[in-house]
Structure formats: structure tokens, C-alpha cells
Amino acid sequence: QVQLVESGGGLVQAGGSLRLSCAASTSISTISLMGWYRQAPGKQRELVAQLVSATTTNYADSVKGRFTISGDNAKNTVYLQMNSLKPDDTAVYYCNARKFSRGGLVYDNWGQGTQVTVSS
């Protein structure tokens, strides 16, 4: 298992930027997939961005070109840089870590979430 602690959420005006951080209790190089998800009121949780490897990332179409996910192995931290924020980006953002082995899923852990509110 891994503990995840998010930070960096807050209130920002449309067009502004925020950087979310997710500090892991273990080396992120040992984690198979790390990602950011979000859940808006009344909506299902959705994938925002995923760090598959040091050079491979996935993004939701709605955030491509605006958000960037990155990892810092030395700090065991994954970041989500969010630029050109829109009111539709308002949600609770969650960090996720999944580890797989040949036997399948080893763990699927979530952080507590951090609120991002974008005002128009």
C-alpha cells in the first residue's frame, strides 16, 4: 500500500493556473501508474491525466494542451500543472496510485482529494 497526500487546490479565476502536488509514501518509480482524477458534484469520477512512465502520459481530451502531469522521483511527488483553467474544471481532484505485478493488481490507492474551484 501507499499513502498519498494531495495539496495545492484552491480558488482561482478563469484563465488562471494552479499546481497540484501528490506526495507518495514510497518511491514513485515503484508504482505502475500514477494519475489524477476529478469528481464534480453530481458527476462520476473521471480520469484527468495519467503518468504511465517517465515519457508516456495520457490526458482527458478536455484538458489536453492545458494540463501537464509530471513526476519527481527525488521527492516522491507527482504534479498536475493546470493552466487556462475554466469553470468546468471545478471539482475535487484525487491522486491515484496503482501497482501491478505478474499476479495482477497489488494495490489501488487514493488520496483524500483537494478542492479546485474556478470562478467565471
What's this entry about, in short?
The protein is mainly β and 120 residues long. It has strands spanning 4-7, 10-13, 18-24, 33-39, 46-51, 57-59, 67-72, 77-82, 91-101, 104-110, 114-119.
Please name the defining characteristics of this protein:
four-stranded antiparallel beta sheet; mainly beta; 11 strands; 120 residues
Fold and architecture overview:
The model has no long low-confidence stretch (mean pLDDT 96). The chain starts with a strand and ends with a strand. The strands form 2 sheets. Strands 2, 4, 5, 6, 9, 10 and 11 form a 7-stranded mixed sheet that branches. Strands 1-3-8-7 form a 4-stranded antiparallel sheet, with no helix packed on it. It has strands spanning 4-7, 10-13, 18-24, 33-39, 46-51, 57-59, 67-72, 77-82, 91-101, 104-110, 114-119. With 120 residues, the protein is mainly beta. The protein has no helices and 11 strands.
Describe the secondary-structure layout.
Elements: E1 4-7, E2 10-13, E3 18-24, E4 33-39, E5 46-51, E6 57-59, E7 67-72, E8 77-82, E9 91-101, E10 104-110, E11 114-119
Parallel strand pairs: 2-11
Antiparallel strand pairs: 1-3, 3-8, 4-5, 4-9, 5-6, 7-8, 9-10, 9-11
